[in-house]
From TrEMBL, chain A:
<dbReference type="InterPro" id="IPR003593">
    <property type="entry name" value="AAA+_ATPase"/>
</dbReference>
<keyword id="KW-0547">Nucleotide-binding</keyword>
<dbReference type="InterPro" id="IPR027417">
    <property type="entry name" value="P-loop_NTPase"/>
</dbReference>
<dbReference type="InterPro" id="IPR003439">
    <property type="entry name" value="ABC_transporter-like_ATP-bd"/>
</dbReference>
<dbReference type="GO" id="GO:0016887">
    <property type="term" value="F:ATP hydrolysis activity"/>
</dbReference>
<feature type="domain" description="ABC transporter">
    <location>
        <begin position="6"/>
        <end position="245"/>
    </location>
</feature>
<dbReference type="InterPro" id="IPR050107">
    <property type="entry name" value="ABC_carbohydrate_import_ATPase"/>
</dbReference>
<dbReference type="GO" id="GO:0005524">
    <property type="term" value="F:ATP binding"/>
</dbReference>
<protein>
    <submittedName>
        <fullName>Sugar ABC transporter ATP-binding protein</fullName>
    </submittedName>
</protein>
TrEMBL record, chain B:
<keyword id="KW-1133">Transmembrane helix</keyword>
<feature type="transmembrane region" description="Helical">
    <location>
        <begin position="105"/>
        <end position="128"/>
    </location>
</feature>
<feature type="transmembrane region" description="Helical">
    <location>
        <begin position="314"/>
        <end position="333"/>
    </location>
</feature>
<keyword id="KW-0813">Transport</keyword>
<dbReference type="Pfam" id="PF02653">
    <property type="entry name" value="BPD_transp_2"/>
</dbReference>
<dbReference type="GO" id="GO:0005886">
    <property type="term" value="C:plasma membrane"/>
</dbReference>
<dbReference type="InterPro" id="IPR001851">
    <property type="entry name" value="ABC_transp_permease"/>
</dbReference>
<comment type="function">
    <text>Part of the binding-protein-dependent transport system for D-xylose. Probably responsible for the translocation of the substrate across the membrane.</text>
</comment>
<feature type="transmembrane region" description="Helical">
    <location>
        <begin position="259"/>
        <end position="278"/>
    </location>
</feature>
Length: 258, 366
């Protein structure tokens, strides 16, 4: 197994007297999908914000490509190759897919007057989207006309195009229907096969099991260990997420289908 | 997964009309057509002679320069209600520099622009720093600048609210023809001699040339459209207005974009001030009164959404032309001229309803 791209060891994060993270250890290798599971309030958001440079850890070390690293801003992390697709996707519905794709990083042409090279941008957008299995009507189609899953895919394709080595996906399937979820999961699998390390945040065990290679459960700000694919099943994961207690009573009435 | 075969079929289903419907300026172009038809029927034919067209394009140009800047700012997600007062304020600065201090235009114009840009930047900085709606912040500046123009004018003219003598002061300055009078005079003279255009009894052409503000108007519309659609900065403006957080997360310099746009609207106001002050030879504190609303109306008729992130400079260009046609056009008809405001309000309402429908169509909202 190859070395991890990013390794976070014993990460603690305190906000005043609130302990959001209390010793989290997590790593991602190239070409794997590492799922971070946890219930609401477990500290998932704080953790990914620490990973993507928004927060600085109170304690703990971050090793990026074998070297200790401290990100002082999301920009820093982005330039190093850590891309985060947050739930709001950073997409603007009224703008075209191309304009969204290259927002803030427009290709230019012309020597004196740096013009936005729309032809190149359109071509790349169409190509990348086709590679992700989405055929756009036209590159100037507004993002607002795309489905939730398609938007997610645009955001992922954009991150990968701009050189993401680690792709953090914050609950990418939480707001999606069944069909769109399977599309996004297929996209994740495709990106992983290109050698990108994917961090898949979810509280849905079935979605995680569908694409995950490794699984780490976060509970009350702590990691409860990491399991390889095949070593763990849905019921066990769910028990870990719930802290091993409350779910036992729920299980019966819901028939284990949470 | 979308199937590969359907891709090409779907392109053909997007008809020409559908594509046209997606252009933000469609409403304004439709408006120009409607208003033209209206005046073709009701107004005297003099309105659509060459002289008549120049007649309504001149006020349209003055408003349009403001309207295009206001449109760009609106696309960037902000308003500037201080542009009308800015015209008076910049007019005062310019008048004082030229008349009281006797500076040549080569210094007076950049200085006036600089003053305006600083005020615009202050506007923008306050909006960004406080997070207050630009509507309120620039409303404050509407009064501050108007009041400052009154006080300033009285100070520099010993009690008058009008500063005269600008024309005399700039006469002979080599830059004057760029900002006032008519362009292509000799060409028009020659065309009149050839009998291609109408001429007066004296033999001079009835239209002595194209008023320079119309050329500024055209140039600014072209430049603004180019920036919006073909420059990275244009993409940033749309992104900033569309969703500030999303833009900022994607690496768009949101603050710089907004401050620049506030500076742009202030400079557009200064340009209009310079043109009109040289043209009339004097400046007064009432100059630019209500222009902020007219500029925003032109931008909205031109397809700008009040929520930002959508619109076009070409739309504002046509919006301003509609404005000029209605203002001047009514004098060519038998209607009471005061219908103008009624007409304007109705146009605005129609434009907002239309734009809203278009936005839903574009985003696929239902």
């Amino acid at each position: 197994m190859s070395d991890p791209i990013i390794h976070m060891q014993g990460i603690k994060k305190h906000f005043g007297n609130v302990i959001a993270l209390n010793g989290v250890t997590f790593d991602v290798r190239p070409g794997e999908c590492h799922c971070l599971l946890g219930d609401n309030g477990a500290g998932k958001s704080t953790f990914i914000k620490t990973m993507s440079g928004v927060h600085k850890p109170t304690e703990g070390t971050i090793t990026f490509e074998g070297r200790p690293m401290q990100f002082s801003s999301p920009r820093d992390a982005m330039e190093a190759g850590i891309a985060t697709v947050f739930q709001d996707l950073a997409m603007i519905p009224l703008m075209s897919v191309t304009r969204n794709f290259f927002m803030g990083r427009e290709p230019t042409k012309g020597r004196f007057l740096k013009r936005f090279d729309l032809d190149t941008a359109n071509r790349i957008t169409m190509e990348k989207m086709r590679a992700m299995g989405i055929n756009l009507r036209a590159p100037d189609q507004a993002v607002g006309t795309l489905s939730g899953g398609e938007r997610q895919t645009v955001a992922i394709a954009r991150a990968v195009h701009f050189g993401a080595k680690v792709l953090i996906l914050d609950e990418p399937t939480s707001a999606l229907g069944v069909r769109q979820t399977s599309n996004v999961l297929a996209t994740i699998a495709r990106v992983r096969n290109q050698g990108v390390g994917v961090v898949f945040i979810s509280h849905n065990v079935r979605h995680a099991l569908a694409v995950g290679d490794r699984f780490t459960v976060l509970n009350r700000g702590q990691t409860l260990g990491t399991a390889e694919r095949g070593q763990i099943d849905a019921a066990e994961l769910q028990d870990l997420m719930a802290g091993g207690q409350e779910l036992a009573t729920l299980e019966g009435s819901l028939g284990g289908t949470v | 997964m979308a199937d590969t075969a359907s891709a090409d079929e779907r392109i053909t289903t997007q008809s020409f009309t559908t594509r046209l419907m997606k252009r933000p300026e469609l409403g304004a172009i439709g408006g120009v057509v409607l208003v033209t038809l209206f005046f073709l029927v009701t107004a005297s034919p003099a309105m659509f002679t060459f002289a008549g067209i120049m007649n309504f394009l001149t006020p349209a140009a003055q408003l349009g320069i403001l309207g295009i800047a206001a449109a760009m700012l609106m696309i960037g997600g902000e308003f500037d209600l201080s542009i009308g007062s800015m015209v008076a304020f910049a007019g005062m600065i310019f008048g004082v520099l030229v008349v009281n201090m006797g500076l040549p235009l080569i210094f007076a114009i950049p200085l006036t622009m600089g003053f305006a840009a600083v005020v615009g930047a202050v506007n923008g900085a306050i909006v960004l720093r406080t997070g207050l709606p630009s509507f309120i912040v620039t409303l404050a500046f509407l009064f501050i600048l108007r009041g400052a123009s009154l006080v300033g004018l009285k100070l520099f003219t010993n009690g008058s609210t009008q500063l005269r003598g600008v024309r005399e002061a700039v006469a002979g300055d080599w830059l004057t023809p760029v900002f006032s009078g008519d362009a292509f005079g000799p060409l028009f003279r020659w065309m009149a001699d050839q009998g291609w255009i109408a001429s007066l009894n004296s033999g001079a052409p009835s239209v002595p040339g194209i008023p320079v503000e119309i050329l500024w108007f055209l140039a600014i519309a072209a430049a603004a459209t180019f920036v919006l659609l073909r420059m990275p900065a244009g993409n940033w403006i749309f992104a900033t207005g569309g969703d500030r957080n999303a833009a900022s997360n994607s690496g768009v310099p949101v603050r710089r974009v907004k401050i620049s746009l506030f500076m742009l609207t202030a400079c557009a106001a200064a340009l209009v001030a310079i043109i009109t002050v040289i043209d009339t030879g004097s400046t007064d504190a009432r100059r630019g009164f209500m222009k902020e609303f007219e500029a925003i109306i032109a931008a909205v008729i031109g397809g700008c959404l009040l929520t930002g992130g959508y619109g076009s400079a070409i739309g504002a260009f046509f919006g301003a032309i509609i404005f000029g046609m209605v203002t001047i056009g009514l004098t060519y008809t038998g209607f009471d001229q005061d219908w103008f405001q009624v007409f304007l309000g109705a146009m605005l309402l129609l434009a907002v309803v239309f734009n809203n429908a278009i936005r839903k169509r574009v985003t696929g909202e239902r």
